[in-house]
Design goal:
Layout (H helix, E strand, L loop, with lengths): L12 H10 L5 H15 L3 H33 L13 H13 L1 E2 L1 H8 L3 H19 L4 E8 L2 E7 L8
Antiparallel strand pairs: 1-3, 2-3
């Protein structure tokens, strides 16, 4: 026989009255025990949740590896073709930014901000969005940020000329 332990529970009066009406006096302990067992069977075990979380983490890592490999493959196939840089622009402001970068081959955020007469943080956000979209769609970004000195400019954004098609 299994060891039994006493459990005390407080239930609302309506539930208690309903139990008194439906369950005979000698069967109430068995009824409550069975109800608890039934509820426990529906509730996942903590170990199972932990195992599921571990499996989920492994799957996410594997998916990240697959995405990386696919991006590398897209990069290899992407280099054989050129892209329209305006494809990654969402509005007229992005088009103006891209015009400037194509014409001057690159530019700093303050240069672009003064040219467009807008806030430099807005320019930075747009540049990052263009970079992210192009990397996502093509496997390699159409514009890149370089923190060092290049062509007399320090901390500037540069257009990747080998990826863009001739305009």
């Amino acid at each position: 026989m299994v060891d039994l332990h006493v459990v005390t529970a407080k239930v609302p009066e309506e539930v208690y009255k309903e139990m008194l009406l439906r369950v005979p006096e000698g069967d109430r302990s068995d009824f409550i025990r069975e109800a608890i067992m039934e509820k426990l069977q529906k509730t996942p075990k903590a170990d199972k949740i932990l195992q599921l979380e571990e499996r989920m983490s492994k799957l996410e890592e594997q998916l990240a590896d697959i995405r990386k490999c696919l991006a590398d493959l897209e990069l290899l196939t992407f280099l054989h073709q050129k892209v329209n840089p305006y494809k990654f622009c969402s509005d007229e402001l992005d088009h103006k930014i891209m015009d400037y970068l194509i014409h001057y081959k690159g530019g700093t955020t303050p240069e672009l901000a003064s040219y467009l007469k807008i806030n430099r943080w807005l320019v930075l956000n747009r540049l990052q969005k263009i970079q992210k979209n192009s990397k996502k769609q093509c496997g390699k970004s159409i514009i890149d940020y370089y923190g060092g000195v290049k062509a007399g400019k320090k901390k500037a954004w540069w257009i990747n000329e080998e990826l863009i098609q001739d305009m």
